[in-house]
Amino acid sequence: MADNEAPAARREYPPPERHPWHGATWARLITAIDRLPHGLLLYGPPGLGKHDFARRLAWALLCDRPAPAGDACGDCKGCRLLAAGTHPDLAQVAPAEEGKGIGIDQIRALGDFLALRPHTAAHKVALIAPADAMNLHAANGLLKQLEEPPLGSVLILVSDEPARLPATIRSRCAAIQFRPPAGAEALAWLKSRCPGGVGEHEQLLEIAAGAPLLALELGTADFLKQREQLLRDLEAVSARRESPVACAARWQAMGAERCLAWLYGFVAELLQTGLSGAGAVAGAPAYLHPFINRLNFKELFGFLDVVSGSRKLLNGPLDELLLLEDVLIRWSCTARGSSKLS
């Protein structure tokens, strides 16, 4: 190395964040930490901190001197190895590239890891996230490991969409469901993390279906202004003032997954409001009014399926822009050919 060449920075892995809405789930699990099942499936909507919880549990299992509340001490040899990302008894399995799945070779390597006895801890821990990214061969390979678990091993699976996992995988894991926290708790946490004007935090939580971390992500990205553009695009496409192709390019720039997730929630809200009767329609938020009287249930339910299917295809080989164009073209057809929703 030349005298004036700085050494490469060592990557560090900070301790997992603790979220207040995990308190009851953590307390219930940590009391049985010595009797944990071999497989755990943490599931629920995105934005609830399931991955942070999984890392927190992995650290607790591999810590030499856990704190009274069950968390890792942060100072022992095991915690130092975890912080350096070099603990020999922790394996983390994730897609090798963004948009790709978890393949059979990764699960075979995990099997080799689990077959060895723990090096420094009482357990060997594997964290698989997102578990629903496993392809069929990978899932079948993991099933063998769940059916014949090596002694002392704990597999923690994290999933936003557990229905995409084979039933045989789900049945061999102890399922822990994560739900959005109480509104007051989520609002207080979000206000402590994200600046915003009057009513903006409530709007962000509403868009995020009560998930605090997703609301924080949306607030950081100034999504409330982006939502205004999305609504303008939907109205313009409906009225034939704008091409779906042009709108799709804007949506791609804002983030295809984020836009489609919002669109799914928006259409679901349209349906819920329309199905709730005339009173709900009259009291609906202002942003629903341009759409609520020009759509019918049947076509809107069909469009909701289109959006759901497109979100699943985003991680596949199909072109992202073409998917968005298809969704918006279908929206234009749905909006033009419908009778009133109410």
Give structural notes.
- The protein is α/β, with parallel strands linked by helices and 342 residues long.
- It has 3 domains: 20-177, P-loop containing nucleotide triphosphate hydrolases (Rossmann fold), CATH 3.40.50; 183-220; 222-336, Up-down Bundle (Zinc Finger, Delta Prime, domain 3), CATH 1.20.272.10.
- Helices cover 51% and strands 7% of the residues.
- It is built from 16 helices and 5 strands.
- It has a 5-stranded parallel β-sheet with strand order 2-3-4-1-5, sandwiched between helices.
- It is globular, with a radius of gyration of 23 Å.
- Residues 1-10 have low confidence and may be disordered.
Report a brief summary of the structure:
By secondary structure, the chain is α/β, with parallel strands linked by helices. The chain has 16 helices and five strands.
Write the layout of secondary structure elements.
Elements: H1 23-30, E1 39-43, H2 50-62, H3 77-84, E2 90-93, H4 104-115, E3 124-128, H5 136-147, E4 153-159, H6 167-171, E5 174-177, H7 183-193, H8 200-207, H9 212-220, H10 223-238, H11 244-254, H12 256-275, H13 278-282, H14 289-292, H15 297-313, H16 320-336
Parallel strand pairs: 1-4, 1-5, 2-3, 3-4
Helix pairs in contact: 4-5, 7-9, 8-9, 10-11, 11-16, 12-15, 15-16
Domain DNA polymerase III delta subunit C-terminal: 222-331
Keywords: DNA replication, DNA-directed DNA polymerase, Nucleotidyltransferase, Transferase
Organism: Candidatus Muproteobacteria bacterium RBG_16_65_31
